[in-house]
Specification:
57% helix, 2 strands, mainly alpha, two-stranded antiparallel ribbon
C-alpha cells in the first residue's frame, strides 16, 4: 500500500491541503483495505497500484463527504447581514458517490463480482 499516494490523491479530490488531509489517513487506509479484500484471487496489487490507489482515494472521499455532512448538525445555510451562504449537502453526497462509482468502474475487472446471483427457475 502506498498510503502517501492515496493521501495525495485524496487531498486533490477533497480540495484539502496536505496537512488537512493527514487527519483522514485512517479513512484512506480503511478504504484501501476494503478494496483489496475484495480483489479477485491472483490479482497483482503492484501492477494495479495506481488504479487501486485512485479508487481508495475516491472511496475515502465519498466517506469523508458522508461523515462531514452528517457532522454539520443539519446546518445547510448561514447568513450574516446581507451575506448568505448555502450548502447543498445532497448534491455534495451525490457528486462524491459519482466519483467513487467512476473509480470503482476503473477497477471492476479485478474485483470479485458480489452483485451477481444465479438462481434456478422451477
Amino acid at each position: 500500500m502506498e498510503l502517501d499516494k492515496i493521501l495525495e490523491r485524496f487531498a486533490i479530490i477533497s480540495n484539502l491541503s496536505t496537512e488537512e488531509s493527514q487527519k483522514w489517513s485512517p479513512l484512506c487506509e480503511e478504504a484501501w483495505l476494503e478494496i483489496t479484500s475484495n480483489l479477485k484471487d491472483g490479482v497483482n496489487q503492484e501492477e494495479n497500484a495506481r488504479r487501486l490507489n485512485s479508487a481508495s482515494a475516491a472511496l475515502a472521499f465519498y466517506r469523508y463527504i458522508l461523515y462531514s455532512t452528517s457532522n454539520s448538525g443539519g446546518a445547510e445555510s448561514f447568513a450574516a447581514g446581507e451575506l448568505r451562504i448555502k450548502t447543498d449537502t445532497s448534491r455534495m453526497i451525490n457528486n462524491a458517490k459519482k466519483v467513487w462509482q467512476d473509480a470503482k468502474r476503473s477497477i471492476a475487472d479485478i474485483l470479485k463480482d458480489e452483485n451477481f446471483m444465479f438462481e434456478r427457475i422451477i
